[in-house]
Write a structure and sequence with these properties.
Layout lengths: L1 H12 L19 H24 L4 H25 L7 H61 L19
Helix pairs in contact: 2-3, 3-4
Length: about 170
């Protein structure tokens, strides 16, 4: 008799394999809603704060668009994942399969956008490196032209021990 009562209490609390099921219980293999819903709320608030931060951050427009789209997808995926690990276990096998297929598809889209963000970052980095290379080449050409002009125009100065230049060739 005591074993039967323990099974009933565990089933009503959502622990164990058997149970009454339903939305309020935890039976049927899914996690209890009272565990999943608060965690889902915290995750969604964190994602929403990140999306708001991305909107106001200074970054290239292409990066902002990709990250905003990814954040919005995460906001949609999080409650779907919560549904898949709680409620869908209590319904039909069709609801269970549909929920998990949708979650996997949304996760694949999130990973795809993350890879797109990586490719975009590589593209932006290559463009920035090319611009820095051009700037360095222009600065080097200016410095070389200035050095040639100083050598050809300042013939009266210099000599051994007669100049006022430092060790780098600039006036002291």
């Amino acid at each position: 008799m005591t074993g039967h009562m323990c099974e009933m209490v565990l089933a009503q609390a959502g622990v164990g394999g058997g149970g009454a099921g339903g939305v309020g219980g935890g039976g049927g293999g899914g996690l209890p809603w009272w565990v999943v819903v608060p965690l889902t709320a915290v995750v969604m608030l964190t994602i929403a704060a990140h999306v708001l931060a991305v909107q106001s951050a200074e970054m290239p427009a292409s990066r902002r668009r990709i990250r905003l789209a990814n954040g919005m997808l995460m906001l949609v995926t999080t409650p779907m994942l919560a549904f898949a690990v709680t409620v869908s276990h209590r319904g039909s096998p069709r609801a269970f399969a549909a929920a998990w297929v949708l979650v996997m598809a949304l996760l694949a889209m999130i990973v795809f956008l993350a890879l797109l963000d990586i490719a975009n970052t590589v593209r932006l980095n290559a463009r920035e490196r090319a611009a820095l290379g051009r700037e360095a080449a222009e600065a080097l050409a200016r410095d070389a032209a200035r050095a040639r002009a100083e050598r050809s125009g300042g013939g009266g100065r210099g000599g051994v021990g007669g100049g006022t230049e430092g060790s780098d060739g600039r006036p002291a």
